[in-house]
Amino acid sequence: MSSSDTLTPETGPPGPVLDFADNRLLIDLCGPYDQHLAAIEKAYEIQIVRRGNFLTLLGEATATEAAAQTLQTLYARLEGGRTVEPADVDMVLRMGTSAKDTGVRAGDQIEMPISGGIEIQTRKKRVEPRTKAQKAYVESLFNNELAFGIGPAGTGKTYLAVAVGVSMFLSGKVDKIILSRPAVEAGERLGFLPGTQDEKIDPYMQPLYDALNDFLPGKQLAKLREEKTIEIAPLAFMRGRTLSNAFVVLDEAQNATAMQMKMFLTRLGEGSRMVITGDRTQIDLPRGQASGLADAERLLKSIPKISFNYFTSKDVVRHPLVAAIIEAYEAEAERALNRDG
């Protein structure tokens, strides 16, 4: 454990003392080599001292109170028969309120960290949103027939959409899942590439395969694809179809042209849900070609029952360096805008 039993000036005065009755659950709460406690210490800038079944929190009052609530939330999760992994600790920390982020004072009411509140059940795993933006996004996927998820890479836009699609399919709310992406690099030349149709488009569709493999057993997925109950196809293959009773995802929508976007959106049929995901900073269309995602955002934002959900670098749930990289590029783009302005 990163903590010591010595009180230092940096640590601050003793705060809450938490008593956890079940020692086995406490071990899981602390994590291997107390790595969960270390993550909480770092997030709230406090120190946690463990003696037997007691955890003493040392530091600023508002920070230790918030950390205590985080620990209690995670322990309640364990009492409910759930596991606590590093991703779960990260989720509760992101969804909760840190005293140092809100500027609350000692004695103020601190918001209880949210343990998710929403779970997406698939055949292989249970998925939970890990940030407030992800939680709002998942809610909109269940509540709206057409939803947009816009933001940088690594924020879970496509992954959560596919998880919701699988969940709705398994519960019988839709009859099929259709996943699509623009095959920008191949353009109209797919027919000239060697191999079968699937071999030509597979490299562009791989992220969608990866998400599905996380949620469905391999044999079941293969059977569903063979039966065309789950389809993965380039955007160009959607023309002329009416997509009814289906959960439909268009990924990398920033690479769809305005005409392609209109074509895709008008495929929506009875009983279907449609999700459009994209990153406005990664447009690969030829210079001068307008992005259909930006066009749709401009034209559809005022229409009721169409939701737009936005993500930032703070919602990145990949390697921490990904968030740092995105922030660096965003800062450079803002500097360039200020220079041009």
Question: Can you characterise this structure?
Answer:
The model is unreliable at 1-9 and 97-116 (pLDDT under 50). The protein starts with 13 loop residues before the first strand and ends with a helix. The protein has 341 residues and is α/β, with parallel strands linked by helices. The chain has helices spanning 23-30, 35-44, 61-79, 86-95, 99-102, 132-143, 157-170, 197-215, 218-226, 258-265, 292-300, 320-340, and strands at residues 14-19, 47-51, 54-58, 120-121, 126-127, 146-150, 176-181, 230-234, 246-250, 273-278, 306-310. The protein has twelve helices and eleven strands. Strands 8-7-9-10-6-11 form a six-stranded parallel β-sheet, sandwiched between helices. Strands 1-3-2 form a three-stranded antiparallel β-sheet, covered by helices on one side. A two-stranded antiparallel ribbon has the order 4-5. It is globular. The longest helix has 21 residues, at 320-340. A hairpin with a 2-residue loop joins strand 2 (47-51) and strand 3 (54-58).
In N-to-C order, the SSE pattern is: EHHEEHHHEEHEHEHHEEHEHEH
The helix fraction, in percent, is 40-55%
- Total beta-strand segments: 11
Please give the largest β-sheet: 6 strands, parallel
> What radius of gyration results from the CA coordinates?
23 Å
Return the structural class.
alpha/beta
Query: Which segments are poorly predicted (pLDDT under 50) over 5 or more consecutive residues?
Result: 1-9, 97-116
Strand order of the largest sheet: 8-7-9-10-6-11
Q: Mean of residue pLDDT?
A: 82
- Sum up the overall morphology in one term: globular
Distance between the termini: 51 Å
What is the beta-strand fraction? Answer: 15-25%
Number of helical segments with 4 or more residues: 12
